[in-house]
Amino acid sequence: MSHFRAKIQDLGGFINPRVVRDHTKRKVFAQFEPDRQALRYVIHNTSLPQRVRAQAQLQLASMHAYTRSTQVKNRCVAGGVPRSVIRAFRLGRFQFRMQALAGELPGVRKASW
Amino acid sequence: MAAPYSRLLDLAKVQCRIFSLNFNPERLRLGNKILRQRLRGPALAAWYPRKTVSFRDLQETCSRSGLTTFDEYEDDREEAIQVAKLRGKGRPKKKRTAAESRSAKKKK
């Protein structure tokens, strides 16, 4: 959501609105992760009273969607493409191919046998 | 010969103290697995490359310390604007009041 988005972006590579949104979600998740884990601990701890655990459940469910890790999507760093992103290089398949053929990825070469 | 259960329990207790684990012989669900998990936030937030020092930053620091810099792109742009003005293709004058903008519309 817009109130989470930074006024001045600190992104350096390819930028489009979807990349900005995903970056915002990542930062919000990192910020609220301790809170979420604390609530999850309370929920999972069976030695605590049932009422406290139920309240923690409600509180966790009422947290903003951007604080959830499932909202984060791995996007291509060079083109913002969300599909078939190679995690080790953070690149989409086509960007990976172009950069690999141009020799910009150390240790990557076209297979031939 | 098997050791008595109480001895094994003591051993487990000492083990837990040494390795700073949670001693829980009744196997209650205390949610300690949540506390053991590492935070994933910093790794996730580091996915996209961050901004590094740009030419504009350099210019800014230079101008702050009283030095002048030359930006070829900016120079070209200003020159093009001057040329356009000479040809009468500059930007129109800003309408400051509502009456001015209305009269501009009527002319059409």
Automatic annotation (TrEMBL), chain A:
Query: What family does the entry list?
Result: Belongs to the universal ribosomal protein uS14 family.
Against SUPFAM superfamilies, the record matches this protein to: Glucocorticoid receptor-like (DNA-binding domain) (SSF57716)
Question: Which GO biological process entries does UniProt record here?
Answer: translation
Q: Name one GO cellular component term.
A: mitochondrial small ribosomal subunit
Q: Which UniProt keywords apply?
A: Ribonucleoprotein, Ribosomal protein
Give the matching Pfam families. Answer: Ribosomal_S14 (PF00253)
The protein here is known as 40S ribosomal protein S14
Q: Which GO terms describe its molecular function?
A: structural constituent of ribosome
UniProtKB/TrEMBL annotation, chain B:
Skewed-composition ranges (Basic and acidic residues): 97-108
One GO cellular component term of this record is: ribonucleoprotein complex
InterPro entries given in the database record: Ribosomal_mS33
Subcellular localization(s) per the UniProt record: Mitochondrion
Q: Where is the composition biased (Basic residues)?
A: 86-96
**What's one Pfam family here?**
MRP-S33
Primary location recorded for the protein, binned into one broad class: mitochondrion
**What keywords are annotated for this sequence in UniProt?**
Mitochondrion, Ribonucleoprotein, Ribosomal protein
Disordered as annotated region, ranges: 83-108
The similarity comment for this entry is: Belongs to the mitochondrion-specific ribosomal protein mS33 family.
The protein's name in its UniProt record: Small ribosomal subunit protein mS33
